[in-house]
Amino acid sequence: MEYTKRFIYQSNQWYNDGLKKANIRDMSGAIASLKKSLQYNRDNIAARNLLGLVYYGRGEVVEALVEWVISKNIKTHGNIANYYIKKVQETQSELEAINQAIKKYNQCLVYCQQGGEDLAAIQLKKVIAAHPTFLRAHQLLALLYIQTEQYAKARQLIRKAHKLDTTNEITLRYMHELKQLHKDKAAKLKEDKAQTVSYKLGNETIIQPVSATLKDNATLITILNIVIGLAVGAAVVWFLAVPTMKQNMSAKTNKDIIVYSEQIAALESEIDLMKRDLDAYAAESEATAAEKEIAAGTSASYEALVAVIEHYHQAGYKRSTLVDEILAVNTASLGETGRATYDKISQEVFGAECQELYATATTSYAANGFKRAAESLERIMQMDEKYADGQAILLLMQTYQKQGDAEKANAKYQRILELLPETQVAKDAAALMTGQAGQ
Question: What's the CATH number for 335-438?
Answer without folding.
Answer: 1.25.40.10
